[in-house]
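User: Sequence for Formyl transferase N-terminal domain-containing protein below. Tokens please.
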Amino acid sequence: MFTVMTEAFFHTSFLHEKLRDFQLNWIIRNFRKLDKSTLDNLHHELSRKDKITDDDLIKLEEAYKGLNESERYLAKTHGVPATHALSSANMVDTGNFGESFYQHYLSTEYSKNNEGTLIFLNVILAPFWIDHFDKKIVNAHSAILPYARGMFAIEQLAIHGNKESVERAAGATIHYVDTGIDTGPIIEQKRLPSPWVLDSIWAVKGESQLTAFGLLKSYLERDNKFQFTDTIPIEQGIESPLFVSKTFTNEVKRNAETSFIKMKEA
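Assistant: Structure tokens for Formyl transferase N-terminal domain-containing protein:
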């Protein structure tokens, strides 16, 4: 059985929706200590609605203890999935993926299923996880690699005001994980057809996330999963910027919003 490692955010409910029909183990970083029953009830209620209102967004924000701009876009545009990251029966809930939790995880039945794992995370996995899964870890990145690596990549790239670089990087990538940050061998990429038909950089981010989830689903449907024979070549000599979360301040967010609109209007 394969494993999914992700986090308890609203946007990862779309990942669960994509993968819910597969037999998987889930390891969920629930550092906000979200309440499963509250999310169950809210997702059940809102998934039946054709249109999500501002009042509904307030309910989601309270239940998830915060929503970011791309999550608001996803709810307004794509609605609310019936399930969420904490919905799975085969699920381990943790506050972090550190050494203490790892030792606990080794004592569970889930740890015996180390054939491979899919990840979508805002944190970097420690080397012991890579060793545990014998390097059979496939990460989904909500931008095209290697053009924009790291955290909040497409948003921070937009600040530079280069339309070509945004077009080149808007989309998603799945790749094998190594000890670097988004540097492992690439398996598949899918670009957004045109980011400029979208209203905001947050819409670009949201659609890139959905594209990443779709790539993970397609990967699970392959016959040659986690065999390291399914990688593709990439263009050599590319300058590959690395963005980190601590640089993504509120000022940077505003600059990303403004810069995207200027490029769109141009």
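The longest helix spans residues 201-220.
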